[in-house]
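Hello again, I could really use a second opinion on something today. I've been staring at a protein lately and its backbone has me curious. Please have a think about how the structure follows from the sequence. I owe you a coffee for this, so here goes:
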Amino acid sequence: MTPAELARQVRLLEISTRHSVTEVFAGDYSSAFKGRGIEFSDVREYQPGDDVRSIDWNVTARAGHPFIKRFTEERELTVMLAVDLSGSGGFGTTHRSKRELACEVAALLAFAAVRKGDRVGLLIFTDQVELYVPPKKGSRHTLRLVRELLAFKPRHRGTRLAAAADHLGRVLRRRSVVFVISDFLCDDLDDSVRRLAPRHDLVAIDINDRRDFDLAPAGLMDVRDPESGATMVLDTSSRRVRVAYRNAAAEAASRRESVLRRSGVDRLSLSTESEYVHELVAFFKQRERRMSR
């Protein structure tokens, strides 16, 4: 991809997501997450009925009559996008691959975060951390993240979520919102989630394709694992083979969901053929309602 082609793709993605961010998505994103807490704003004179626990005794002593502290909610968030670009992301049976969907979703989240003045960073991983861009504010920084997502060529094809979890555990010094965008075809999900979930607001965005769960009856097929390179021949015309494949995929998905639920991690499943903007909006509205209870 030439620099001109990359710039064109970034611009097209920015334009295509602008309506979603400005008209619909940004408000739901903002309401669905809390800032770090409250921060000191200023002081004012005490009035009858004020909470005496809020009295600023230093100012009160200097002024000779009581003053109380005022606080405001600190809205700024640190948002980290951990995006899986392992070999299985190249799979897709519709107009987009799982990798393309993951990059579009990450870009939309990045544009929404920068619109709200949040700091946003990027971690690209396979079976190791391949790229880390520390969180910053600003549209130029966000465009850089999108360029990295679109142009990046991973050196490895496997998936090890623990590599991403370990790295984030070292570099994120304060509580952050961490979006892990992956198809979660890995065997270390439980351990990785237990490392991240207690310290951060972790959201798992599960990227999948319908053929991850259901084989089409297309006769004999040479099947290759895009991460390990292992190959085998499947007789997809056999109902027994298709049922076994469907059951194995459903069982794996159920295990993933159970791990995330036990750790209190929110999960959103997105298909390569889904209208993902509407599904994201619905997800954040549901999250906002739950947090406001």
User: Anything to note?
Assistant: The radius of gyration is 23 Å. The chain has two domains: 3-32+77-291, 37-74. The chain has a mean pLDDT of 87. The first helix runs from residue 3 to 32.
